[in-house]
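FAQ

Q: What does a record look like?
A: Structure on top, sequence underneath. For example:
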């Protein structure tokens, strides 16, 4: 994605750099951030055993990355105006539980369908707690992954385009009726 100012990349870097030894001993965490943009240099400078930055990836490489991931991060700064990032649909399609800082649409979807954990963007400790909870609780992670996979077809292109066509047909017929 675009590594811009709305993403809370510093929170991911800080978490990767400050993993408590007790957590490192329980699970092997690797934070992988892919993309390009204004925060690219921060990502490049932060590479470590726990923080991997491959740069911009094409669709095939992203698919491969998603297949090997256990958790997806949706880490936006508190002032972000994003309601539903496009990458959330990729996460669902690949059955990834989402650790998310957004309220609005994605936050509500996560609560309603139990597909991840919402955290407070202004509290870095809540990001760490959400990641730790999912990383250390395999059954919770698997249940949320199954919920995500089950929800994904609702957002398929075919289904969404079909809905959009119906909206256009309704608007068109209403407009036609009003001109007669």
């Amino acid at each position: 994605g675009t590594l811009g100012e709305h993403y809370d990349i510093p929170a991911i870097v800080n978490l990767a750099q400050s993993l408590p030894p007790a957590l490192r001993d329980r699970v092997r965490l690797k934070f992988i951030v892919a993309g390009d943009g204004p925060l690219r240099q921060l990502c490049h400078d932060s590479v470590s055993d726990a923080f991997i930055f491959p740069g911009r990836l094409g669709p095939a490489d992203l698919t491969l990355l998603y297949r090997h991931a256990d958790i997806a991060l949706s880490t936006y700064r508190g002032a972000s105006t994003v309601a539903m990032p496009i990458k959330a649909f990729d996460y669902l399609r690949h059955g990834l539980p989402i650790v998310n800082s957004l309220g609005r649409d994605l936050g509500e979807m996560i609560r309603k369908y139990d597909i991840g954990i919402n955290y407070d963007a202004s509290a870095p400790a809540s990001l760490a707690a959400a990641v730790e909870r999912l990383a250390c609780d395999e059954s919770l992670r698997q249940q949320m992954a199954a919920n995500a996979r089950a929800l994904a077809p609702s957002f398929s292109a075919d289904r969404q385009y079909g809905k959009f066509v119906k909206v256009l047909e309704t608007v068109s017929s209403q407009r036609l009726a009003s001109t007669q």
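Q: Is there anything notable about this one?
A: The mean pLDDT is 92.
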